[in-house]
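Severity: low
Component: inverse-folding endpoint
Summary: output formatting inconsistent between runs
Steps to reproduce: submit the following structure tokens with default settings.
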């Protein structure tokens, strides 16, 4: 006979401990889940806010582009009276310091003269028109629009100048060019100046060879009466092989293909160069339309002349040095002479841009009087020889505001409170006759 086992007493304390452990485990799991939810919420909120800030900066920068296009289309940016008012001096100016030229064999008198010139320039508020700057605030976000005249730069595609031939000429119906030597000298002097300023170890021969290869990369058709033959077949660009383009440059970035072209030199010369037609559009010669191998821009005329009135000092300097070659292989002006005259030309341009406005009473009403006009400045080109002066004037673009086509670079940037910035850069062609504006280049950073 099996005896029943006696019932064991229940350990209530152990049951309560297990329940407590389960409850704590559940609370921990819920805490982890809540923490993860809150973390994901914060992450998504951060992403949404950042995306909102980026979109805000982007669309405000686009608004700046639209505003600049409207100004260029319906206002005359070449007229200083339109923008350069005393209450809002929109033009930015810059001076070129010659302090980077120590040890060039200057006499004590020349050194003293240079120090005096530098002192005078440092005391000036403005020196040389550079660009049109329009600051603005939109939705509490600062917007900056900068408009630069592309025709105040050296046009690399103008290395080739179209030659007009008579219909009886055997070359009629073909694309005929000649080399623009004065512009070649100007670009070389600009490269040499910037290499000196930034201490880039390139000799004059290396810089000149680089530009000869650039011209070889561009040229095509009949050059000076004979068919163009490439000096080299290609450029080594990293792991890529770049064949000779035999046509106009589409962008300044193509300069990077050149041997010995460093990032530092490229950034140093880029602000002073352009590749856009900045001239008139012409019909391609008969038989050349849509012909394979003929560049798309064969019907464009690249104007080598420069709008000196809006050019930076570096470009004026390069033009002066190029004008002093006088058919030789070396300039007849020294670097110091060209720098000094270039500064004076820039100062004269600044003086011309100062507009006399009627004096105002405290209530804002005109008094009927105007400030006495400043005496005309001395001609900075008066010290040049007639030959150099004539060569310089041939490289100047007269009356740019009266031309039907104008080319401008527009840079708009917007910066939010959280540090998100969008920069949009475009190059636009303005047709004043047709009231039309066309974007030729677009970049967003």
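Observed output (run 2 of 3):
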């Amino acid at each position: 006979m099996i005896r029943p086992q006696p019932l064991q007493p229940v350990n209530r304390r152990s049951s309560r401990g297990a329940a407590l452990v389960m409850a704590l485990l559940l609370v921990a799991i819920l805490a982890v889940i809540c923490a993860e939810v809150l973390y994901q919420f914060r992450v998504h909120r951060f992403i949404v806010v950042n995306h909102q800030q980026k979109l805000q900066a982007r669309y405000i920068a686009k608004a700046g582009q639209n505003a600049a296009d409207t100004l260029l289309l319906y206002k005359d940016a070449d007229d200083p009276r339109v923008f350069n008012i005393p209450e809002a001096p929109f033009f930015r100016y810059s001076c070129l310091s010659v302090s980077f030229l120590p040890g060039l064999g200057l006499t004590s008198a020349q050194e003293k003269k240079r120090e005096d010139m530098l002192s005078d320039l440092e005391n000036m508020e403005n020196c040389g028109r550079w660009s049109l700057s329009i600051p603005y605030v939109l939705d509490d976000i600062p917007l900056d629009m900068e408009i630069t005249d592309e025709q105040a730069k050296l046009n690399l595609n103008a290395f080739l100048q179209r030659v007009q031939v008579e219909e009886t000429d055997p070359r009629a119906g073909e694309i005929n060019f000649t080399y623009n030597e004065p512009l070649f000298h100007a670009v070389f002097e600009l490269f040499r100046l910037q290499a000196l300023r930034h201490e880039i170890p390139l000799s004059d021969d290396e810089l000149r060879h680089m530009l000869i290869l650039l011209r070889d990369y561009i040229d095509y058709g009949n050059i000076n009466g004979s068919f163009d033959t490439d000096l080299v077949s290609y450029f080594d660009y990293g792991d890529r092989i770049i064949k000779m383009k035999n046509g106009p440059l589409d962008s300044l970035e193509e300069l990077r293909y050149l041997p010995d072209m460093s990032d530092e030199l490229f950034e140093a010369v880029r602000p002073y160069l352009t590749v856009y037609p900045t001239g008139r559009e012409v019909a391609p010669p008969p038989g050349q339309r849509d012909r394979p191998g003929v560049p798309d821009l064969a019907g464009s005329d690249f104007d080598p002349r420069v709008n000196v009135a809006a050019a930076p000092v570096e470009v004026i300097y390069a033009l002066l040095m190029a004008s002093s070659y006088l058919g030789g292989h070396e300039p007849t002006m020294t670097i110091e002479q060209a720098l000094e005259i270039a500064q004076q030309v820039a100062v004269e341009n600044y003086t011309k841009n100062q507009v006399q406005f009627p004096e105002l009473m405290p209530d804002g009403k005109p008094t009927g009087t105007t400030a006495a006009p400043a005496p005309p400045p001395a001609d900075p080109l008066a010290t040049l020889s007639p030959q150099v002066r004539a060569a310089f004037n041939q490289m100047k673009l007269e009356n740019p505001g009266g031309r039907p086509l104008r080319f401008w670079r527009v840079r708009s940037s917007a910066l939010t409170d959280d540090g998100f910035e969008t920069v949009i850069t475009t190059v636009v062609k303005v047709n004043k006759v047709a009231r039309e504006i066309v974007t030729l280049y677009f970049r967003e950073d």
